[in-house]
Amino acid sequence: MGLYWMNSVTTQGFGVATYTDTVKNYGISGNYITSQADSYLGGSGMVMTAVIHNYRWRLSLAAGEARYDQWEQKLNTFPTIDIPTITVSSDFDGPNKDGKAYAKQFTGKYAHRILNGIGHNVPQEAPNAFADAIIAADKL
Fold first, then answer.
1. Buried b (16+ CB within 10 A) or exposed e, 26-41
2. Which pTM does this prediction carry?
3. Domain boundaries, given as residue ranges, for the chain
4. What is the pLDDT of residues 114-135, one digit of tens each?
5. What pLDDT, in 10s, does the model give residues 71-84?
C-alpha cells in the first residue's frame, strides 16, 4: 500500500476499518505478508490502532507521547549526525533511493547502500545485507 493511500485513508476517520478490510481481503499472500497481516489484526487490534495512529501522528493529526516532546523538538531542528553511518534504501524508494536527499545530514563518515527488490523492513527482507551494513558502519 502506498504512503499516499495510507495518508488518505487514515485522515478520513475510517482508516482502521478500511485498512483492516484491505489486509484481510485483497491480495495478501506469502508467509511474510500473511504473518504481518495476522499480527496487525490479531488479539485486541492494538497493533492496527498503533499503525493508524502513527500515520495520523506523522501528519500532525494526532498527539504524540508527551514524554518525548523534548526529543521531538530537537529532531524537528534536523540536527546533523556525526557518528559513522550507513543508510539503506531500495528501488521501492523510487527517486529517493540514492540517498542524496538526506546525505547532508550525516557529517561523520557516511555511506549509502541500495538494496533492490526489498521494501522497508530491511532486517527481515535482507538480513545478510543488513548485518553487513552494521559491520561495515563499525569499520567506517
1. eeeeeeeeeebbeebe
2. 0.62
3. 3-71, 80-138
4. 998 888 788 888 999 999 999 9
5. 989 988 999 999 99
